[in-house]
Design a protein that fits this description.
By secondary structure, the chain is mainly alpha-helical. The chain has one domain (4-22, 32-101). 66% of the residues lie in helices and 0% in strands. It has helices at 4-12, 15-22, 33-54, 61-96. α3 (33-54) packs antiparallel against α4. It is elongated and about 55 Å long.
Length: 114
């Protein structure tokens, strides 16, 4: 069985990891409130995983630097765009008195796996 540290190191160096981190770069408002909140939740999970990897003692200083730059990008560029989109949707709903902007009929139903 592969050690968790080895798995994390292998995953961080894979093309799939880069694609995962960069997958939020195409977030372009205007979007629905549900979509924006979903993207924010996914972004937070990515950030937590990256931060866990930074604390992993098996990575070199250079690899930690790469992870830190990815964290900085997500925190400094992507997250503010997602939060701004949420704010714009809520402000528009209040300004127009349109609760339809925040009450979407087709919400995803997330169920716990048993």
């Amino acid at each position: 069985m592969q050690k968790v540290d080895d798995y994390l190191k292998e995953f961080m160096l894979s093309p799939g990891f880069k694609a995962l981190v960069e997958s939020d770069l195409d977030f372009n408002p205007p979007v629905t409130l549900t979509y924006a909140i979903e993207r924010l939740a996914i972004l937070h999970v990515k950030l937590w995983n990256l931060e866990d990897m930074v604390r992993n003692k098996t990575f070199s200083d250079e690899q930690v630097g790469v992870l830190k730059r990815q964290i900085d990008h997500l925190n400094g560029v992507v997250r503010p765009r997602v939060v701004a989109a949420i704010g714009e949707i809520l402000a528009k709903a209040v300004r127009e008195g349109n609760d339809g902007l925040v009450r979407e009929p087709n919400l995803k139903d997330y169920k716990a796996r048993s």
